[in-house]
Design goal:
- This protein is 56% helix and 9% strand.
- The protein is built from 20 helices and eight strands.
- The protein has a five-stranded parallel β-sheet with strand order 5-6-7-4-8, with helices on both faces. A three-stranded mixed β-sheet has the order 1-2-3.
- The longest helix has 22 residues.
- Bound molecules: adenosine-5'-diphosphate and magnesium ion.
- The site of magnesium ion has 4 residues, from α6.
């Protein structure tokens, strides 16, 4: 097969899984430049596309290439000029688009630093402090003053959407800002596990050790998702000891205090307990209002006081939902080209205020397949038919967004899919609801079925 045919095969597959706009943006003017010793060199028109492909689509592209040639090992992206160098112009157009798009529409993910894996959008500057999180905030400040010495490890726990990831990453971003030589690394426990298992499987266990031991600050997020898999925890235990002995800081987050996490080795648990443990709580009314004010301002939303007060009164559980409500308003404001009044906001938000109810994954799968009129069993199959792929992605999105279910677990429940597929689905839907009102409405109806029946 020549390179052209090979690349066409890949494109055909990518096209199925992406929206048309996305596909056009990222894959236009891409080609296989050459293949050498199992490395495929993909030519891209600019750095912007390169970073995006490398960050977002790398695994899908590689998988797809390997489906054609299993011996392909890796991909390199190279920037090539097209004809009269439209590169710079194109890049400008796209970047302008990003700049005029509000910060929280997910575009920032694009700028995730590849060395530190930190997202620069999480800073202390845009972190609101209140009684609900001031202990965690002070602990974070203490760590910053004297990393590795005061509180090691720092362990922050609390329910989802209360700012743990934000705080963790703000520490990392701050330390990098004041000293760019500091080797900081942020990773979720899920990705850590995947990295470990992959490297060990391919005989590179030692590389794994070296890679993680070289950091000065290691941040591991959501450790409740640590699996007991194949020595992962044992390795983390040794890694922790090495950090500790060298006075290098390590920070964890979780949804529970160490005492209550299942699935964790006792000696690791005792390490967690040996440091500083702080929690974050639900914000009180004043904090909720302050968060809304700050965020509305950052989004350029000129929201009337009564709207913010309405939101602060009715959305009580977490910061993510507060932010979500502002995003919903922002979408409408963009459609209507004017601010909404409090009654319009009430109507808009009503369906998003979730009554507490327990619901199983099976129920959700059933509700979504009924909603889209398809037989449940298709969802578990390997098919890529759009009418099935889509509802499946929606289920994945809901499980993650509303229940914070782990990616691997979602994949497992939906026919044994890889966690990267789930992550991709989640990001895809999350992004699309910002642009596609129909989808937003479908989700609203599905949530209605989930929560109100
Ligand atoms: P967690 O990791 O606890 O689930 P996140 O850190 O992801 O929560 O927070 C959810 C969203 O709310 C993020 O967009 C984050 O920026 C925002 N957020 C959380 N806490 C705060 C805060 N104190 N000030 C400003 N934004 C916050
Ligand atoms: Mg988090």
């Amino acid at each position: 097969m020549d390179n052209k045919t090979l690349w066409n095969n890949v494109l055909t597959e990518m096209e199925i899984s992406l929206s048309r706009a996305n596909f056009g943006t990222w894959f236009k003017h891409t080609n296989i430049y050459k293949q050498e010793e199992g490395i495929v060199f993909i030519s891209v028109p600019n750095a912007f596309v390169r970073d995006w492909l490398a960050n977002k689509y790398h695994k899908s592209i590689l998988t797809s290439l390997r489906a054609n040639y299993p011996e392909i090992r890796s991909i390199e992206y190279i920037i090539t000029k097209l004809g009269e160098s439209p590169t710079q112009k194109e890049q400008m157009v796209i970047q302008n688009k990003v700049e005029t798009t509000p910060d929280n529409l997910g575009f920032n993910d694009l700028y995730i630093n590849r060395d530190s894996n930190l997202n620069p959008k999480y800073t202390f500057d845009n972190f609101v402090i209140g009684p609900f999180n001031e202990v965690a905030y002070s602990a974070a400040q203490a760590v910053i003053k004297n990393p590795g010495n005061n509180y090691n490890p720092l362990y922050i726990y609390g329910n989802t959407g209360l700012g743990k990831t934000h705080l963790l990453q703000a520490i990392g971003n701050y330390l990098k800002k004041i000293n760019n030589d500091k080797k900081v690394y942020y990773i979720t426990s899920e990705d850590y596990t995947v990295d470990y298992v992959n490297l060990v499987r391919s005989g590179k266990g030692n590389y794994f050790k070296e890679k993680y031991r070289k950091y000065d600050l290691l941040i591991i997020d959501d450790i409740q998702f640590f699996s007991k898999k194949e020595g992962t925890q044992e390795e983390l235990f040794h890694l922790f000891n090495s950090f500790y002995e060298n006075n290098k800081q390590i920070i964890f987050s979780s949804d529970k205090s160490p005492k209550f996490i299942n699935n964790i080795d006792d000696r690791l648990r005792s390490r967690f307990e040996g440091g500083m443990i702080v929690d974050v709580n639900k914000p009180n009314y004043e904090s909720r209002l302050a968060i809304l004010q700050t965020k509305a301002k950052n989004m350029g939303l000129n929201t009337p006081d009564d709207v913010l007060e309405y939101l602060a009164t009715n959305i009580q559980d977490n910061v993510r939902e507060l932010e979500g409500s502002l995003n919903t308003i922002l979408c409408q404001v963009q459609v209507k080209k004017r601010m909404l009044n409090v009654n319009e906001v009430k109507n808009l938000i009503k369906n998003n205020i979730k009554p507490k109810k327990t619901i199983s994954i099976k129920d959700i799968i059933k509700i979504v397949s009924d909603f889209y009129n398809l037989e449940e069993k298709f969802l578990y199959e390997k098919t890529r038919r759009k009418e099935i792929v889509r509802p499946r992605q929606i289920i994945m999105y809901l499980l993650r967004e509303d229940f914070n279910t782990s990616y691997p677990y979602i994949g497992q429940k939906l026919g044994g899919r890889d966690h990267t597929t789930v992550m991709h689905a989640y990001e895809k839907i999350k992004k699309e609801i910002k642009e596609n009102n129909n989808l937003l409405q479908e989700l609203e109806q599905i949530r209605n079925l989930m929560y109100n029946n």
